[in-house]
Design brief:
The protein is of the alpha+beta class. It is 35% helix and 25% strand. It has one domain: Histidine-containing Protein, Chain: A. It contains three helices and five strands. The chain has a three-stranded mixed β-sheet with strand order 1-2-3. The chain has a two-stranded antiparallel sheet with strand order 4-5. The longest helix has 20 residues.
Length: 102
């Protein structure tokens, strides 16, 4: 039996690892400081500058806020948003408009 290295770790440079770690910290900090996002239901992964958002949020508004917060961080190359909604039927009204916005 011989040792096989993990090719996933071998392909990543130390700089990419630090960069992903820094991005993860920045994203978590943004989520924690924003009252509109509940980070408890969000599973966050960062790989080579690509941010993966998985898990559950309350509604479409929280999903959009989470996406916008991540996109606002320098160094994020792309966001894969796979957040699911616990209340998919939520409708938001604009204050000056009397028709629902979907």
């Amino acid at each position: 039996m011989h040792y096989q290295s993990n090719t996933e770790n071998r392909s990543r440079s130390p700089g990419a690892f630090v960069s992903d770690t820094v991005l993860m910290a920045k994203i978590k900090s943004k989520f924690m400081s924003d009252d509109m996002v509940d980070p408890e239901g969000i599973d966050l992964k960062v790989r080579h500058g690509v941010v993966y958002l998985d898990g559950w949020v309350a509604d479409a508004y929280q999903r959009r806020i989470a996406l916008d917060l991540v996109k606002s961080i320098d160094g994020v190359g792309r966001v894969v948003n796979r957040l699911r909604l616990t209340n998919p039927g939520t409708v938001f009204l604009k204050p000056d408009v009397k028709t629902p916005v979907f």
